[in-house]
Amino acid sequence: MKRLLANRSVMVGGTLLLLLLCVALLAPWLSPHDPYAQNLNHRTVPPVWFEQGAWSHPLGTDPLGRDYLSRLIYGTRISLLIGVSVALLSGLIGTTLGLLAGYFGGRTDMLVSFLVTTRLAMPVVLVALATVALIGGSLWVVILVLGLLKWDRFAVVMRSATQQVCALDYVAAAQASGASTLRILLGEVLPNVMPQLIVVATLEAASAILLEAALSFLGLGVQPPLPSWGLMVSEAKSYMFFSFWLIAIPGCALALLIFAINLAGDGLRDALAPQERA
Hints:
By secondary structure, the chain is an all-alpha fold. It has one domain (2-277): MetI-like fold. It has 14 helices and no strands. The protein has helices at residues 2-6, 8-25, 27-30, 68-104, 106-120, 124-135, 139-149, 152-166, 169-176, 181-189, 194-217, 229-236, 245-272, 274-277. The radius of gyration is 22 Å and the shape is elongated.
């Protein structure tokens, strides 16, 4: 805890993530309006810092008259849900394959390497677009597709890290003492590859959020009326030369979330590194 508190990246990124998490959890109480309620008499009202703005809609309204601040707050829920869910699903698949390949080697390593090579031969964006277009876009379809497509980095990093850890003396001592394979993998290997796992998880979570925004922008991700940040940008693209803030506000929110995740992950890697523990 002292190392974490002394790390500026963890403190800044963690504080931003905590604030965004609180915003997502407290969305029903923080939102001044119903994010789905339409009022065509108040379409594209500018934010409060413009002359035509009003405090009743601090960030203005979208082309359908929906309060932009409320949709932005509820959009935090969707982005965090997608980032965490995809990182957990892909991390479970990739970490399992990487641990098995790095520990057993031989044919197991060859099989996992073949699976990783096959996966790398398929572009994530292209496969995600084709799959979502065939199945149909929805929140859970996007999470499932991205989770099944983004495990390769986990597998590659975990395989390399496991091979390095398995060459150390404490793993040999556990094997000599008669510990089971599961006990060695979960008790000796996994805790010592956790820093690499955390870094990959943060990168993949941020990448998943960006991919969801891209799919939603193309109309193949989260479907209306859910307030996805990518969908908000897509709905506002026709107004970018007249009401640029319709794109700038969700874009800045997306950039802030990605920045916070990457900063926190980088700081956690430094704080949990073996040289720091020493």
